[in-house]
Inverse folding.
């Protein structure tokens, strides 16, 4: 087991699996891809497979590669099982479930020699290779046996492949059945139907298929105390427990489920027990300009307010972002990043808004970013973002991405927030009475952060006037040069102060030499796996610092100081975070070597390894 | 809503106090920096007076605006209230957020015709559709004052700019669009018609949802010439009041013996009323189609009709009622009411594992 | 005369004038400020003063410091006269015309000892100093003599101070009268009134005031062949001769006059002589999103289309900017920069959108910038921007600023464009017939720039589908990773190709040692003056490279290579252009030393000198 | 406008050709990737047929759209035409630009209810006000299809989402707003009513200004359930055609002997006509106030009325006529007509020195 493997395991046999597959049984270490058509209901089936494996205590991850379309285009779901806990995406497929006539030719062509295939019998004729292990399954006939209702057959046939896959991989049928119950909750008819389908697939396979047991799931105990959750749902939980009160939003993939989940949670847990009334408001806006407008209005009036969006929404929020910065209004934007520019690939993942969100709006302004790497951080940073927004009286971005947000992840259980909410520097009527003086934009504490009052505060001193134009510390209009520069300098100071309030960077791998690596967000898993692989195969790998926010704290500077070369792994073309590092640490700019991945797929260890080896050569 | 203490106003020599215990001066703002003679200043004065006479508590008002000469005026009244002068054309969204965060506040919004009908049209209409509680005032001069006099979208067809340019398009009528979007208190007035404006503003402040007051407000610098249809001269000569408007507060006796043929009474929340006394026209403002017809005719015939164009109760609930919010402002709920318990988290975690 | 002085002069006496005034006559070398109330009509009076001095052949510049308000707030107009041609802003005032009761106390307090003041007699009581040379003028009485109409007196009294100033400075009365005629064109009543007022001011002064002739204008011949023009007007001329056809816009200070001027020019010069019909369309949009939408629609359909805006407009255009980048649509945005963030100081100048415009929109995208330093470049770059937009099929920014745009400048006459317009790679029906093939996004020429067809092209191959989503070279929808990355890489290549199409950087001052300086836009004048001063006073000054666009050509790299230290003068807080240089030249990042000025006033030489000296120390 | 060559269509066995010499297939696009059964596909088919029957020359059409399932359909018809699938809600501005650059093109715009009435409302209304020449089709399903079924702003009050959520607000009626903004060709139809839709589309394509066709187009995946007011079932059961609509091209004989009491004839540019034959209702679509009244009543009484809701000529000129553009497209004017002469520059320089 590697020093940095995220999940301790108890299986003794070390895996020789890496970039090049070897002909020996792959125990709890392989990749399964289901190629199907989107809108066909395969999502539930895939979730059941995922759950069943998870329940067997085996580390597993799932990546859904789906089209920007509602029904009918190719979609792929990839499950990676890895006993050592390496659950970043892996590109090579060991077992393909080929169900989509449109993509089957290409899907089959792309398989490595020796891979296994579960092939829909209707697609038999598409098979042009003889170096694959093929299992042909008459899904049509099978589903007809368990599902009399014709219009449900397409849906239910998905559960047949769950049975087939289960049998082939040695997933216990009971676990599959448990997972089905979990998946369909209280819908007993659906449970019944799907269970029958899975059973049939399992039993039919046992009778008709050959199983060389080269790909096998064996029970482990790696998932004890873990939960399964999508990043967006984790994020919603963070806002729920962070005490969000006003949510303005406009639907956009891949961020919509942040709000869908949050609204469901709020409606369940945030109604006054006595009156049944809501302690929150979620309002769907007409567009993103309105959504961020709601948030600023609410934040100004004292609510803990947030919105979630993706690239195009970020662009539309640009003007208001500058207002939040300059008028010092707490606000949180979750950017679940997809692939841009423009509409780009709305259902693919990337880290392509880092620079854009950070600098959002015209004029001199910079916004703090929080960058979670996993569901736990999505949860924690969501709650934290509300605190920071109120503490700093500014716009805070939570930079998630589609990979984190829309895929199911296993994660440790989330901890209840121990600290009370930070509502920041707010003066009450009593405070005003005591202080006898209130100047909205005065840097009283020397940290650049002024005090504010909330509308509704019953005190003659409470009122002040908020504006996006130049102002004095007393919040009156000013075009004086000194007022302008002092204010702008204070804002810069406040921004720097944020560095110490953000989660500190984490040294994930200690450096042995003078070569380091920086990564952030969902690159984490692939980077860790890559470094482990490099260490094992090449006996040498850089250390690794994981950034969790912008602005950068002093720890980052020290890291750069200590290393001669620092690779920066990013999921974008323009080396966006590298640009920020070079901006803030020019003295180390040339040490930074961007290592870029921007094809829209979640990062995989192999590409990182390749690029690091290239860089070394 | 303003709290109206039971004690009657003081009657000493000291400046007259209203039921909130405040003198008129308490409702003033900073000195105006607008051009002298600007219609907007007259509206500011009526907002000050209406607020005083409505006994508003300054702390219970949020002043909101966009960008423009008109939007600047939010600084020129109610100096003790919180004010938010946002970005151009997006006050509607800000107001919605404020309303959600603290629905006990009265939002007073001031905007321009450019701010509302040009850049802000979409947001304005969506705010109306949501029925956000706000007294929304358009200070309508048909031009962009602050950027030096280009046509706005409310400029009338055939009207000209100072330098001669002619507007070839029909004007946007914010009142008609608001009615179409379900707004239930829609008024039009003229900055020079102080009494009418004062009463219409009071009604709008008392309204429990979006109340629109579209006020023709001449721009003395860029749109007060011959050829303008928003000049003082034009407005004064052409204004035709649909009725005589009187706001009657809840605490004043209401004489039910108004002649029913001659008056129309509108009930506002909490017992206040607006009484419309018939003038030349026989106009019933509660009929949506007639209101639209009236506005359509006014446009075609270049009439400048003022008064309460439309009032009707019974449409969608105000936004915060749709959202079934608790009685207290969301903004100041304590943590105990906004952070679910440890048990809730644990049960969620259980369901996920 | 200094080696880099922009205007050759023939006055022998070298000026000892610099940061510290000396008690000797200031011949053609001083600063005059008129402090008045905006909306009071002083603009015409100031223009007349400017013109009269200009006509006397003396280098002069004017800066208007006005409020964001229509009438009633303080405004200052500063004229700098400098025989050597140093016409950047200079902060110290030699002669104040104090007319504004609101600002007079502060205005007087700020004057250096020994300065002269023309004081409105009504403000006499405000004078609390005895170290000033004060001329008290009863403007109220005087104007009453020449202007019977009471309502015109406020306006006309401005021309009285022109006469007073003229007499005090020795400006020839004839030149003043000529300038009045020029200013008021055909309005003979206005000419008459204003002439009388100026004459009266002049003659009354001759009778009543003392003139020690310490501040004097003497005829020179530095303005031969020069024109007087505002940057925005110059820019409009560029678009007129650049053949702009569609203009979409939304008013915003300080960009509105680009369009006002352009519309006036178009209406005068771009109607078909026969039919009287227009060969252009200018449409005022409802906001900036619509304005840029018009431009993209028109650019896509083949028009030469542009818009002009400032900070807030740039933010609102963010989403469409990404569409232009990714769908490869020619478009031009003029950003006349004012002071941000947010509404900021709408009537002050800065260079605060450099980074923002460059990166505008979410996702990976970068846009070329053209940065003119003076009216001549504003004219040339405006025409060039249309060519570049069509050549590169992308969005091009022309980054002007309020100082350049709204102040009057003297400039050489503009040259007629000798090259034909570049309409870029457009295929006609005949081309298609010949080629038999058309793929919209294929990199046929290896420069990253594909070919396009225009809607309306009558050929079955002409049509293609434009989208902001992932696409193949044949312009069909694609979510394939390879299509995505190849396309994005081609776009990056195209962007790099732009470097050689942009105006090359100019070595304004050769470096003597290994210290260089980079500046751009309107910092130019102040930087040149500062370097001259440093050379003269300290015997040492850095060399100076003026950038005129982004992306950076190889010449910039070579410049950085050659210098150990490169100061970068910018008019913003966040070192925005430095950030871009550090991004693209990390190996030289630490050589770059930002030298920042962001108080909203045009840059002056003294601050540059101070900061360079500080940097040296 | 389409050029209609004088030769009659070929009559051989080969596929029937229209007057542009093209078969129906030439008007097809790429295969649809929408859900099978989506209302939008039915509209696509009618656009294809209308284009064929209108003898459009593909090169003279620009297809424009925003973002959404509906907006995708621009790729599914007229494959030979240029298409531009822009950003969400901003097709109106793009269309305006295209119109200015080349006013000889027919713009066919397809948009969704979210695209037009939610995010795009302001731009849409301003485009209408400018009277940009476009056949503007709203594929109205009351939800955001592409983002998985949230309510759009045209969702009816009381209608429910699949998972039960109830809409509390009144719908935005794009037709009513368009009429209010001066649109002169305003139609409503149903994707399932092919004949009516076909004829209304033809009239819209021939129209010399903004023509709106708001088509209820069920979203089979997210809004076709019980409780939806935009489902097939609801639309089929409730549709009430205001009249029978027939488009009569200029080159077809026009029988003037239609019974005047029973028909209403609308003249389109260049000799084409729309003939409305009376059904149950006696409806005159040329009266603006009546049209608004009809829509208002329809909303209150939950009627689904289809047909040509409003037509009237005489308002503001189409944008490019307001702008007095030369006959040729601005886009392709030669340099000789867009760069003034050297003398002009010199004279300007002289005036500045
Ligand atoms: C996004 C944006 N665009 C443009 C402007 C410039 N601008 C300031 S005020 C204004 C128009 C104001 O007109 P109106 O709302 O009618 O107010 P008025 O000045 O006439 O009272 C404009 C275009 C701006 N501030 N922000
Ligand atoms: C700026 C922006 N915000 C959000 C989205 C996400 N989005 C894509 S389509 C759509 C709604 C489409 O609804 P509608 O116009 O009704 O079309 P339909 O899919 O129902 O046909 C949304 C919100 C986007 N693409 N761009
Ligand atoms: S410019 Fe017009 S609107 Fe603005 S302050 Fe002056 S008069 Fe009023
Ligand atoms: S989701 Fe709805 S609107 Fe979209 S394609 Fe499917 S049925 Fe049509
Ligand atoms: Mg206005
Ligand atoms: Mg829809």
């Amino acid at each position: 087991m590697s020093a940095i493997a995220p999940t301790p395991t108890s299986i003794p046999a070390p895996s020789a699996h890496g970039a090049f597959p070897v002909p020996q049984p792959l125990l709890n270490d392989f990749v399964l891809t289901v190629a199907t058509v989107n809108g066909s209901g395969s999502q539930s089936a895939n979730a059941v497979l995922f759950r069943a494996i998870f329940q067997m205590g085996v580390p597993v991850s799932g990546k859904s590669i789906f089209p920007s379309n509602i029904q009918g285009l190719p979609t792929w779901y990839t499950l990676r099982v890895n006993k050592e806990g390496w659950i970043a995406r892996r590109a090579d497929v060991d077992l393909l479930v080929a169900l989509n006539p449109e993509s089957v030719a290409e899907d089959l062509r792309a398989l490595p020699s020796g891979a296994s295939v579960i092939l829909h019998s209707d697609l038999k004729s598409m098979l042009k290779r003889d170096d694959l292990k093929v299992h042909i399954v008459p899904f049509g006939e099978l589903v007809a046996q368990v599902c009399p209702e014709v219009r449900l057959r397409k849906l239910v046939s998905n559960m047949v492949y769950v049975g087939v896959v289960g049998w082939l991989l040695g997933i216990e049928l009971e676990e599959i059945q448990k997972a089905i119950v979990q998946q369909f909750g209280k819908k007993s008819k659906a449970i019944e139907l799907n269970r029958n389908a899975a059973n049939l697939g399992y039993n039919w396979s046992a009778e008709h298929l050959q199983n060389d047991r080269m790909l096998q799931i064996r029970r482990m105990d790696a998932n004890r105390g873990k939960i399964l959750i999508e990043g967006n749902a984790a994020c919603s939980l963070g806002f729920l427990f962070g005490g969000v009160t006003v949510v303005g939003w406009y639907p956009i993939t891949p961020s919509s489920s942040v709000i869908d989940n949050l609204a469901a949670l709020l409606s369940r847990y945030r109604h006054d027990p006595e009156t049944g009334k809501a302690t929150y408001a979620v309002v769907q806006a007409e567009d993103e300009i309105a959504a961020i407008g709601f948030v600023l209005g609410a934040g100004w009036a004292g609510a803990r307010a947030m919105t979630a969006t993706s690239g195009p929404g970020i662009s539309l929020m640009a003007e208001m972002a500058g207002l939040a910065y300059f008028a010092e209004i707490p606000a949180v934007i979750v950017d679940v990043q997809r692939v841009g520019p423009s509409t780009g690939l709305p259902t693919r993942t990337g880290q392509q808004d880092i620079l854009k969100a950070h600098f959002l709006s015209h004029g001199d302004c910079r916004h703090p970013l929080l960058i979670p790497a996993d569901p736990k951080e999505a949860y924690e940073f969501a709650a934290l973002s509300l605190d920071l927004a109120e503490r700093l009286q500014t716009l805070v971005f939570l930079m998630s991405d589609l990979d984190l947000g829309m895929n199911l992840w296993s994660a440790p259980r989330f901890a209840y927030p121990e600290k009370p909410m930070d509502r920041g520097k707010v003066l009450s009527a009593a405070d005003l009475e005591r202080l006898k003086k209130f100047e909205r934009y005065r840097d009283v504490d020397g940290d650049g952060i002024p005090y504010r009052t909330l509308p509704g505060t019953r005190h003659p001193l409470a009122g002040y006037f908020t504006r996006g134009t130049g102002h004095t510390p007393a919040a009156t209009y000013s075009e004086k040069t000194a007022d302008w520069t002092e204010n702008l300098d204070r804002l810069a100071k406040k921004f720097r102060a944020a560095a110490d309030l953000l989660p500190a960077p984490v040294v994930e791998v200690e450096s042995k030499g003078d070569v380091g690596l920086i990564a952030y967000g969902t690159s984490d898993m692939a980077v860790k796996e890559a470094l482990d692989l490099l260490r094992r195969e090449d006996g040498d790998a850089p250390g690794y610092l994981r950034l969790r926010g912008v602005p950068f704290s002093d720890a980052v500077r020290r890291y750069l100081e200590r290393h001669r070369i620092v690779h920066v792994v990013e999921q974008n073309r323009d080396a966006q975070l590298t640009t920020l590092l070079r901006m803030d640490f020019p003295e180390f700019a040339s040490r930074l070597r961007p290592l870029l991945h921007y094809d829209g797929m979640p990062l995989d260890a192999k590409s990182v390894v390749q690029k690091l080896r290239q860089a070394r050569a | 809503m303003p709290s109206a203490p039971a004690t009657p106003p003081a009657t000493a020599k000291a400046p007259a106090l209203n039921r909130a215990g405040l003198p008129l001066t308490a409702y003033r703002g900073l000195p105006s920096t607008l051009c002298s003679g600007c219609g907007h200043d007259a509206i500011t004065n009526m907002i000050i007076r209406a607020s005083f006479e409505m006994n508003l508590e300054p702390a219970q008002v949020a002043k909101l605006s966009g960008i423009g000469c008109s939007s600047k005026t939010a600084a020129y009244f109610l100096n003790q209230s919180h004010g938010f002068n946002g970005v151009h054309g997006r006050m509607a969204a800000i107001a919605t957020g404020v309303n959600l965060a603290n629905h006990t506040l009265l939002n007073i919004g001031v905007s321009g015709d450019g701010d509302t009908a040009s850049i802000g049209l979409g947001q304005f209409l969506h705010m109306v559709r949501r029925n956000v509680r706000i007294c929304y005032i358009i200070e309508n001069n048909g031009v962009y004052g602050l950027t030096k006099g280009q046509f706005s979208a409310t400029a009338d067809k055939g009207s000209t700019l100072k330098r001669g340019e002619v507007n070839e398009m029909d004007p946007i009528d914010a009142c008609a669009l608001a009615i179409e979007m379900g707004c239930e208190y829609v008024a039009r007035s003229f900055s020079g018609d102080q009494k009418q404006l004062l009463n219409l503003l009071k009604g709008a402040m008392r309204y429990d949802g979006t109340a629109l007051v579209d006020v023709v407000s001449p721009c003395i610098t860029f749109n007060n010439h011959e050829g303008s249809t928003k000049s003082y001269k034009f407005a004064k000569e052409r204004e035709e009041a649909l009725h005589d408007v009187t706001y009657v507060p809840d605490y004043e006796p209401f004489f039910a013996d108004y002649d029913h043929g001659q008056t129309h009474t509108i009930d506002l929340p909490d017992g206040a009323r607006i009484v419309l006394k018939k003038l030349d026209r026989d106009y019933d403002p509660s009929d949506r189609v007639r209101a639209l017809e009236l506005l359509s005719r006014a446009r075609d015939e270049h009439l400048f009709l003022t008064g309460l164009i439309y009032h009707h109760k019974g449409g969608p609930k105000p936004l915060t009622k749709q959202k079934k919010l608790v009685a207290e402002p969301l903004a100041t709920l304590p943590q105990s009411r906004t952070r679910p318990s440890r048990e809730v988290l644990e049960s969620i975690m259980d369901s996920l594992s």
Remarks:
- The domain at 24-246+280-331 of chain D is CATH 3.40.50.970 (Rossmann fold).
- Residues 341 and 347 of chain D are 10 Å apart (CA to CA).
- The longest helix of chain D spans residues 39-53.
- Chain D has one domain: 24-246+280-331.
